[in-house]
């Protein structure tokens, strides 16, 4: 053996033994870093789920219409342990599902929550913040191999904050029908299923806020199948985006054009769901006096001035008998729905019409700010009666005139027109109608007009102090179709009834009453119908825009929410963005 070899071997062994703690320590550090990253993710997931779960449960309990108030409808507390019940407790259960509990892992875990209604959250830039929940989760874990280097414990802490806040509903159109939802198309002459939009020859739509369509029907040209949308001939649609759920597509026939190519492939989400869900329905007015109308005819002023019609429950009676006739109320001449005060009805009037309302030719009807309920009508030729009809060259208006032919934002409380029947929740029928045996079933919603009629109407204005608090969640709705006027069943909170395993069916008393008709017109080369507000028809219902002359137009800052929309030949929708769109309360992580 060469001299000196044994000492070298001894040195190598000594170096190896001395380096082992460093090697294993480094290896342990790498393992513990990986474990620490995993532990951090788990802890953060627990904090996120606790905050989001607690805030979401609060919104679920509140609904879309209530305001969060500490100790009344939501829990509030400084940062501390999870309570045993309530929405904060629900959030803590979500954290438990993600592996973190109060004093879990033999006391090595901690979970604390804080909550407050309104302001009080440092660093929050959320406009309209209504309620927030903050969760802080922490875990202590013994180190494994890296303990060799003196790192005996790993402490991990994660914080998350979820907030409840208003989100604007900004799109110009939300077309809600799914592939299984059907409607009767006068343009295609038959029942079509899964078609959200149908535009005939020469029809034009300007939708600057964009369009959402919920049908997943794919395109097919020629037409063995029905697509999510079909535009025919020279029809045109102008929108910055058109988002279609799933594989839904467009059939564009002839020289039709869509300004920005529609896109599909989107999963079910906010844009494809009813923005009104969870709000319930606009409450009916209460405490109104009964106003029987002999012969069903109200004659207004014919030679200037206007006749005032005070708030009340209006119904037609047989002349000389006082017995309800079931006929619509017909107005001739100039009338104003008002109590005559300088600030009519304290800024908001209430009216109910049994049997519908008809304005005769050349009449002028002014609607003061208020709630106008069209509570059913007698069937016509087996079909639904009509809620609101405007005669030839008649005028429907409110207190805010056009400015140079353009509709502008109103400063008063605005109007809401509710189309329903006598079964509407909270509606109190006049005793005479209850004793008459007459039926006032579902009506065709909207407004049907004769040649040359005009309309200038403004929806509810949430910024007005005169708007009743119970109606503020529905601003800026102008036309509301009862959610009972559709073949899909809605629950009392305004959401689709899913108790059948899927959407439950609703049997209509009068088939066809799920259609809303909006008559377009023109005046002096401009739009004759000017609306500011939201036009609402539930999923399963549809809106038909009609016109009598080429170029008949509905214009203004308006929004359409409906199951489907069909445009007649040469009609136009010239929409503009709403100045004050509706808000929905939403929950999201913000920190």
In DSSP terms (H or I, runs of 4 or more residues), the helix count works out at 4
* Fraction of residues in β-strands: 25-35%
Count of separate structural domains: 3
Q: In which range does the helix fraction lie? A: 10-25%
Unreliable spans are: none
Average pLDDT level: 89
The major β-sheet equals: 21 strands, parallel
Principal-axis shape equals: globular
Class by SSE composition: mainly beta
Task: Determine the N-to-C terminus distance.
Answer: 72 Å
Number of strands: 42
Q: Tell me the radius of gyration.
A: 32 Å
Structural notes for this entry:
By secondary structure, this protein is mainly beta. The chain has 3 domains: 5-168, no CATH class; 169-273 and 549-583, no CATH class; 290-514, no CATH class. The chain contains 4 helices and 42 strands. The protein has a 21-stranded parallel β-sheet that branches. Strand 35 (522-523) and strand 36 (526-527) form a beta hairpin. Helix 1 (5-62) packs antiparallel against helix 2 (86-97). The longest helix has 58 residues, at 5-62. The radius of gyration is 32 Å and the shape is globular. The protein starts with a helix and ends with a strand. The mean pLDDT is 89.
